[in-house]
């Protein structure tokens, strides 16, 4: 039962490590772009009970502006973050403009070339708060002050804005002109013509945007010098289609339809690595006949994209960032939240993860695409880890814990059989873990980026911890004291503790890995793993009960002295072949042997089943 208590404690600690706390000393660096607290709760959608006022309506380079943050309701705000951004959707709106001067209870954040942000330095009620902002030496166009107001940990408003601060030297401010539409464009998306007069790709396969289960829909049709596209996504503020030379996100030309002040805006983006940035000034290059609609849940759009982009269309935008559609590409389709037209990180929820066509799309053909691209290295990584921890690790640890004494007199190659089996199993575990880590590092090309998602972010961190423990334990074993050494019990407990800590962490890893949306593995694998885990714990309990309660009654006083002298500790790993265990059977009792056989058979079958599901299932 001590082992079970330890397992439970470790599980609780692991879960506790995933909790994200608030930031009483202000917004963290990762909030600079989205201005969203990392509280893992949704922002309020009702009008904010706070307002942001400015001391003048226009500015020139170097001007000082007084900005006042105040409440319009009964509750003060306890935290805030304020940035000045460009107001014109035609300009780069994700740049922070101008410099704040900190006052009591505030601190600077998000330092950049053209400006910085201001946030609270302590979490306390604020009444009206007046701050000073200084414009850059050169005016940067029409601006607005964007503020996130925090009322308490779970109640906050983002995207609140001040009145526009006008730049007299800039062109007149325009709102997005993409038609909102009187009815959703997907209401007349003609899916019956898919495969005949236009190409289509949908998830689930063959679904229509009018169906409630349709997550994504993309269609394309060559139209002289353009390609006409239709996009749809369920539960998103933007839908984006990427044109990629492979099935990976880096080096991808993207067109995104996103919400911006009640309009759907169609813009060019480019994924240099694993993040997407809107192209300036080429955000609208090659895009015509744009139309979009957002219901409050689902988003759709139509647009024409020029097949060939000429160099003179780009001005200061690198021409290689907008791909010509005369070539074939994989289509990457994603959705997520947007902030004033700027797309945020795509959704990572199960069933909403970005999808990729299984083959390249030729836009001159009307192919009917189905299925998803498969990531073989990800699946190979998962298969290696499943075999390592479900099969080889648990079998090696069971034999060391419960069969050491009963196989003590049997040898193989001059060593006890139990020790040889244990060492072989753990060596296989080590090799499989190393292979799995190498494979996933090759796939990611380094360490995974931070996604601000507990499941995705926990997996690589915990994976490195498990790998470190797996490497540490055999290293310690190389320096183990002799069986009769005074410090041998210390080694026994350390070796046992590291092994079980690695095993518990690995079980969490397998659960999170199988459940990760990017693995595209169905819930059947998750439930099968949970079933196996219950089976494994049951076998542990039965063996522990049999060892402590049944066999203990058969031990004589002489046996007790003998057992006290051989360090019979949980998980002892040594080759104490000199010990004489004649007082017990020289072979394992029949019951334990049968139970071991049942466990091996059951674990092999369930491991093979999960491996098959992971390897073959793209959904």
Task: Describe the overall structure.
- With 619 residues, the chain is an alpha+beta fold.
- Helix content is 30%, strand content 23%.
- It folds into 3 domains: 22-161, Immunoglobulin-like (Sandwich); 185-369, Immunoglobulin-like, CATH 2.60.40; 376-616, Four Helix Bundle (Hemerythrin (Met), subunit A), CATH 1.20.120.
- The chain has 8 helices and 24 strands.
- Strands 13, 14, 15, 16, 19, 20 and 21 form a 7-stranded antiparallel sheet that branches.
- Strand 8 and strand 9 (155-161) form a beta hairpin.
- The two termini are 40 Å apart.
- Mean pLDDT is 79; it is low at 1-23 and 556-587.
Protein structure class:
alpha+beta
How many structural domains in the coordinates?
3
> Biggest sheet: strands, sense, closure?
7 strands, antiparallel
Helix content: 25-40%
* CATH topology call of the largest domain: Four Helix Bundle (Hemerythrin (Met), subunit A)
> Low-confidence segments, ≥5 residues, pLDDT <50?
1-23, 556-587
- Overall mean pLDDT: 79
CATH top level of the largest domain is: Mainly Alpha
């Amino acid at each position: 039962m001590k082992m079970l208590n330890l397992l439970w404690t470790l599980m609780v600690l692991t879960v506790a490590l995933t909790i994200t706390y608030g930031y009483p000393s202000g917004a963290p660096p990762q909030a600079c772009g989205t201005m969203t607290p990392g509280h893992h709760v949704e922002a309020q959608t009702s009008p904010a009970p706070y307002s942001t006022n400015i001391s003048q309506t226009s500015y020139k380079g170097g001007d000082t502006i007084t900005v006042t943050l105040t409440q319009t309701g009964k509750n003060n705000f306890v935290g805030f973050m304020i940035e000045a951004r460009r107001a014109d959707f035609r300009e780069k709106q994700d740049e922070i403009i101008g410099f704040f001067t900190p006052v009591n209870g505030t601190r600077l954040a998000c330092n950049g070339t053209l400006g910085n942000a201001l946030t609270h330095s302590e979490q306390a009620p604020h009444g009206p708060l007046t701050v000073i902002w200084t414009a850059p030496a050169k005016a940067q166009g029409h601006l607005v002050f964007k503020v996130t107001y925090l009322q308490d940990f779970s109640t906050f408003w983002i995207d609140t804005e001040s009145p526009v601060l006008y730049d007299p030297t800039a062109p007149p401010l325009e709102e997005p002109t993409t038609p909102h539409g009187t009815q959703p464009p997907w209401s007349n998306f003609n899916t019956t013509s898919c495969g005949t007069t236009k190409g289509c790709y949908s998830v689930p396969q063959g679904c229509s945007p009018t169906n409630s289960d349709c997550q994504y829909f993309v269609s394309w049709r060559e139209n002289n010098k353009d390609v006409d596209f239709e996009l749809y996504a369920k539960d998103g503020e933007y839908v984006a289609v990427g044109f990629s030379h492979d099935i990976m996100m880096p080096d991808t030309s993207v067109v995104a339809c996103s919400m911006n002040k009640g309009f759907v805006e169609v813009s060019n983006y480019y994924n240099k690595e694993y993040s997407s940035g809107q192209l300036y000034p080429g955000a609208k290059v090659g895009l015509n006949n744009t139309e979009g609609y957002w219901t409050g849940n689902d988003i759709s759009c139509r647009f024409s994209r020029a097949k060939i982009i000429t160099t003179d269309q780009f001005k200061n935008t690198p021409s290689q960032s907008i791909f010509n559609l005369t070539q074939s590409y994989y289509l990457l389709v994603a959705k997520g939240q947007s902030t004033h037209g700027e797309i945020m990180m795509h959704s990572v929820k199960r069933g909403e993860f970005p999808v990729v066509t299984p083959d390249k799309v030729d836009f001159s053909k009307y192919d009917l695409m189905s299925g998803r691209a498969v990531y073989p290295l990800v699946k190979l990584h998962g298969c290696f880890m499943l075999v390592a921890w479900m099969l080889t690790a648990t079998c090696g640890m069971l034999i060391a814990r419960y069969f050491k004494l009963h196989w003590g007199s049997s040898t193989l190659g001059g060593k006890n059989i139990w020790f040889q089996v244990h060492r072989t199993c753990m060596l296989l575990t080590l090799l499989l873990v190393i292979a799995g880590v190498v494979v996933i590092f090759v796939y990611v090309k380094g360490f995974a980026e931070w996604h601000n998602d507990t499941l995705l972010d926990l997996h690589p961190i915990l994976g490195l911890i498990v790998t470190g423990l797996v490497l540490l334990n055999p290293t310690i074993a190389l320096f183990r004291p002799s069986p009769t050494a005074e410090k041998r019990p210390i080694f026994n407990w350390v070796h046992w503790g590291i092994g079980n800590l690695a095993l518990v962490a690995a079980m969490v890893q397998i659960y999170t890995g199988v459940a990760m949306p990017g693995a595209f593995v169905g819930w059947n694998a998750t439930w099968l793993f949970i079933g196996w885990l219950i089976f494994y714990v049951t076998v542990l309990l039965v063996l522990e009960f049999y060892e402590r309660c049944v066999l203990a009654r058969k031990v004589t006083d002489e046996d007790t002295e003998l057992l006290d002298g051989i360090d019979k500790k949980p998980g002892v790993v040594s080759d104490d072949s000199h010990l004489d265990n004649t007082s017990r059977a020289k072979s394992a009792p029949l019951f334990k042997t049968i139970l071991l056989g049942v466990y091996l058979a059951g674990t092999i079958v369930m491991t093979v089943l999960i491996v098959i599901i992971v390897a073959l299932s793209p959904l």
